[in-house]
């Protein structure tokens, strides 16, 4: 019994720290994904009008399958605002755009 007590105390102290580390790793992962989506959006927006059409994403294996998920008003155009809202919904991340 005496040998289990130190293990129980150590586990009690370690588990919250492990959980925080996992949360930090998850948050960092989601932030990277959101930033990658923004970078991809910028690359696909060839006319620099802060919007991408189906024509602009045609052939892109990453963005094309998610186009309808991001285009919430179903007008065939993903705007920067729609992408920012998608990042917040999908990843829980608020992107800042400069």
Question: Any chance you could write out the topology, listing elements then pairs?
Answer:
Layout (H helix, E strand, L loop, with lengths): L3 H41 L6 E3 H4 L9 H4 L6 E3 H12 L7
Helix pairs in contact: 1-4
Description:
The mean pLDDT is 86. Helix 1 (4-44) runs antiparallel to helix 4. The radius of gyration is 21 Å and the shape is elongated. It has four helices and two strands. Strands 1-2 form a two-stranded antiparallel ribbon. The protein has a domain at 30-91: Recoverin, domain 1, CATH 1.10.238. 11% of the residues are buried. The chain is mainly alpha-helical and 98 residues long.
Keywords:
98 residues; mainly alpha; Recoverin, domain 1; elongated
């Amino acid at each position: 019994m005496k040998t289990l007590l130190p293990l129980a105390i150590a586990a009690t102290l370690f588990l919250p720290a492990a959980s925080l580390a996992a949360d930090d790793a998850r948050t960092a992962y989601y932030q990277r994904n959101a930033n990658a989506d923004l970078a991809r959006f910028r690359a696909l927006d060839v006319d620099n009008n802060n919007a991408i059409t189906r024509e602009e994403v045609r052939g892109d294996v990453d963005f094309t399958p998610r186009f309808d998920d991001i285009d919430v008003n179903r007008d065939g155009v993903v705007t920067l605002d729609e992408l920012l809202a998608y990042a917040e919904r999908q990843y829980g991340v608020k992107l800042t755009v400069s």
